[in-house]
Amino acid sequence: MSTTHSLTVLKLGGSLITHKDQRETVDWNSLDRACATIGTFLGDLPDEHRLIIVHGGGSFGHHNAAEHGVSSTEGSTDARALTAIHHAMGELNGAVLGGLHDHGIDALPVRPLSVAAQDGPLQFPTASVEAMLDEGFVPVTHGDVVVDDRKGGTILSGDDIVVSLARTLGADRVGLCSTVPGVLDDDDAVISQVDTYDDVASVLGGSDATDVTGGMAHKVRQLLALDAAAAIFALDDLSQFLEHGTAGTVISGHDEERSH
Amino acid sequence: MSTTHSLTVLKLGGSLITHKDQRETVDWNSLDRACATIGTFLGDLPDEHRLIIVHGGGSFGHHNAAEHGVSSTEGSTDARALTAIHHAMGELNGAVLGGLHDHGIDALPVRPLSVAAQDGPLQFPTASVEAMLDEGFVPVTHGDVVVDDRKGGTILSGDDIVVSLARTLGADRVGLCSTVPGVLDDDDAVISQVDTYDDVASVLGGSDATDVTGGMAHKVRQLLALDAAAAIFALDDLSQFLEHGTAGTVISGHDEERSH
């Protein structure tokens, strides 16, 4: 990729763009608001910025995966079951693409089952993603089934894809947009800055604790390991994140040059 | 991949598995016969053989691509149009997967737009395909839209994918199953063996001629450049090809050891 562009990796959480309790139901209102905000941002900066969008599975991925007994650790060799989970995620991906197209965003799909594999570490070749970015498209990828060494197929989370792509492509900004305004302290106030895991261990649990926060502890640990600064924020702050790179809780990057 | 396995790349032509004159119409009869034959073959040889299936677009790809003015040379930057062509190919891919599943074949999709890119030569990273083969799955890929350097998105043909994967993965056998029984001579008899293009120039046209044979001249040239021997044959000969590696017209490989 050209070094004159900055690159943002933005995750739209599954709980944000779907109704999590209703099977395979898009939250069209939230999805449209997110797409409108992204469209306004890209419209203002057509040639300066490159964007990758990753979305979660919400009520499309989780029900299907659970029914077939597939998780990030439990695999299946039943190709029909794996294809069914992948197909459901494709339906959600199609809805996200349509929402983005409606706001003038040149979004194209990148389906992880087709490109990635778990072989110990995640293999996610980026020829297609880089070509899309170079041509001015917005790649839209998602949590999905992927083939996993000696396990058949397992679930690759959207969060893991965010981390992999941000690291491989040297993203400048990483944002997780979800239904929570950030990492919350014991009084439910947003913690504005996290520099080490110790800063949040008292609210998210120690390194050995069960992840009682619905994955927040795992997200924070993954984002702390990135070179780029990252942010966790709600939809109301998406515009601020896209314009300024900070919103909600900012997780410091390891690369001091880059993380201001 | 393990070297104890042999690898076949099999193309199911778009004209074979769809009704080419009826928009987006699967030829269920032909598709089911092909899937049944493949299922019988794999059932007899569960651990010895690895198979990749590539299918063409037929009446799913061609109408859509033509409507949007997209071809292998003419690109489009309209993401909604590119997504529509890709979506139509996904419908056909889903039908092929379903047919294979019905015959007990552990088939999984590999969508080229997600993994490949044209950057002068075709880039088609094979991490996902190799992982599928290692886990005993049958990757099923197809002609598709791919992003093309400075052109937006163009059409990548199933034939080009066959050649790319056969070369990258060192396929032992390559077969093109279509509606014709092979390369035909002037009396419409099947030419059993082609060692050089000169053998067929009189019926397919010289190197400068327009490809009046619906792409057959291009197919023969591509297959002659492969190390593996290749065959062009009709559905009636699919079983023979899978069992013996020869059927219809055999195109000699460059690798004499491999091409017997």
TrEMBL record, chains A, B:
> Which EC number applies?
2.7.4.26
Q: Which superkingdom heads the taxonomic lineage of this protein's source?
A: Archaea
Presence of the UniProt keyword Lipid biosynthesis in the record: no
Summarize where ATP binds, as residue positions.
11-15, 58, 215, 219
Q: Which residues bind substrate?
A: 57, 62, 158
Q: Which GO terms describe its molecular function?
A: ATP binding; isopentenyl phosphate kinase activity; kinase activity
The UniProt entry's GO biological process terms, in alphabetical order, are: isoprenoid biosynthetic process
Pinpoint the Aspartate/glutamate/uridylate kinase domain residues: 7-225
Q: Which residue positions does UniProt flag as site: Transition state stabilizer?
A: 20
Tell me which InterPro entries the record gives.
Answer: AceGlu_kinase-like_sf, Asp/Glu/Uridylate_kinase, Fosfomycin_R_FomA-type
| Catalysed conversion reaction | isopentenyl phosphate + ATP = isopentenyl diphosphate + ADP
Per the similarity annotation, which family is this? Belongs to the isopentenyl phosphate kinase family.
Listed under subunit, the entry gives: Homodimer.
Protein name, please?
A: Isopentenyl phosphate kinase
Species name: Halovenus rubra
